[in-house]
Amino acid sequence: MGGPQALFILGTGPGVGKTLVACGLLAALKAQGTTAAGIKPVETGCAHGEDHDLIGRDGTRLRQAGLPIPPLVASPYRFAPPLSPAVAAEQAGLLITMEDLVQAVQAARAAIDFGRIVVEGPDGPLCPVAQDGATADLAARLTAAVLVVGPDREGADGQVLLTLEACERRGLDVRGVLLSRRDADRGRLRNEETIAARGQVTVFETLPTLEATDVHAVAQHLEAHRVVDALLR
């Protein structure tokens, strides 16, 4: 793809804080004076709004954090069933290809005059996002700089290492791993050390327990611990 490299938030699975991290990254870029917009190319589990259109919750949050590109650009493919995107699309009678998703990201980039694009990948690395590919395949097609996001909990080290293995098989440009803590009372785990040693990857300082509205706190964390620098280098 032409223009600056896309920044891809790749989670180890659903509910690991991808949207919050993507929004924090957008806020950090905005604070630096960088034009940036967020896109979730395909989103499932969407609810119907007052006008009966499906509302992409994650896409809406990305629009609020970054440049407010049109909703259909920030969240172009939306489905109600909380299934993997390819399956939800098939149930709706639609076949989505990887090329469709790449073009959706290109449309978002064109909407901001080739500024920075932050892409939130659905679910985990092997989630079927299209008829012919998974989330990690989309990151590869975009030749994106990848930040792997996972939860700091028991078993997270194995989930992250599996994600890194999927990235390595596709030759992805992984800039590091960011864990997010969900339990304020949880004692410090050793996930950071294990992942860094076995995955041979940069593991950034773990995000503290935060709420979905703490976008600016995430932005400050990403700046303070040089996550933004690693993604932009």
H-E order: EHEEEEHHEHHEEEHEHEHHH
Number of domains: 1
What name does CATH use for the topology? Rossmann fold
User: Which class in CATH terms?
Assistant: Alpha Beta
CATH level-four homologous superfamily name: P-loop containing nucleotide triphosphate hydrolases
- What is the CA-atom radius of gyration, in angstroms? 16 Å
Q: What is the overall number of helices?
A: 10
What does this structure look like?
The structure is a single chain. This protein has helices spanning 18-31, 57-65, 71-74, 85-91, 98-111, 135-141, 156-169, 191-199, 215-224, 227-232; strands at residues 7-11, 36-39, 42-43, 47-48, 54-55, 77-78, 116-120, 128-130, 133-134, 145-151, 173-180. The chain has a five-stranded parallel sheet, with helices on both faces. The chain has a two-stranded parallel ribbon with strand order 3-6. A two-stranded antiparallel sheet has the order 4-5. Helix 1 runs parallel beside helix 2 (57-65), helix 1 (18-31) crosses helix 9 and helix 7 packs parallel to helix 8 (191-199). The model has no long low-confidence stretch (mean pLDDT 92). 40% of the residues lie in helices and 18% in strands. The chain has a single domain (7-232), classed as Rossmann fold. The protein is globular, with a radius of gyration of 16 Å. It has 233 residues and is an alpha/beta fold. The chain contains ten helices and eleven strands.
Features:
233 residues, alpha/beta, Rossmann fold, 5-stranded parallel beta sheet, two-stranded parallel ribbon, 40% helix, 18% strand
